Structure of Transporter:
Amino acid sequence: MYAFQLATLMLGLQLPIVCHALDVDPGDYTPMPDGTQLGLLYLQHAERHDYYVRGNQLSDKYNLYSDVSILRGVSYQAFAGVLTNIQLLLPFGHLSAGGDIKGMGSESGMGDPILANAVWIHQDPSTNRALAVTQYLFLPIGDYNKNKELNIGENRWKYVLQGGYMHGIGSRVILDFVADVTFFGDNDRYSSRDLTLKQDPQYQMQGFIRYMFSERAAMHVGYSRLWGGQRKVDGTELEDESRQAKIVLGGSYFVTPKAQLLATLGRDLSVENGFKEESRVNLRLLYVF
């Protein structure tokens, strides 16, 4: 089985570097006033060395490094008293392999653009409580080459349905709960052999605790669980269902009344199949227009 999994890895690593899971930041479901527009820049760096198959470590020398930047625009509108927003995300990335998989080389380019729309079912800014649903559609137009072992784009449609709930406790503590499911289209150009990649739905739950030192400064700790998403290549199950747990720690600060800087450190606690992230650094700059 290990030989089969390794052969599959070398066949064509379709690693979705932008969002292997659709991670969120604490406060993403904060309702904003009608007419608000946001511009965001994300910078993300992650390092991986360990590769797992069915819970067992296959190697600790499968070095994979990723650097991702994302430009994101968000516009809020209220229709008949219901708050919504529309979003556009443009990802760009660089992948670099080392150690025992150094032969995979490196790759840079544009990832699959993302269209998103959120609708708030309930909001009460006075108590920091809100409930919303968001849809994400990944467009398969990112850089993809079936003859390369590393790719930035995925050559397939993806749809994510996500729900988020924010719950204030007093004036200082806010809890964020987010759950989503991802549905995958087929990649009919998987590797140079033009195989067809199919994938089962994938699920994720995320939770954060935020402590507000003031209206400008906050810190947070978070936990995430990911499961599902088993893949098939030309009808053959890879037995690579995702089972991942990770933790994050970070903080945010409004450097001006309209500009916020958020930083998060994280790592995987456990991985059933695939790469285990040893470390991750996320930086986000948000500007309110």
Summary: The chain has one helix and 18 strands. Residues 40 and 286 are 5 Å apart (CA to CA). Residues 2-288 form a domain with the Lipocalin fold (CATH 2.40.128.130). The first strand starts at residue 37 and ends at 53.
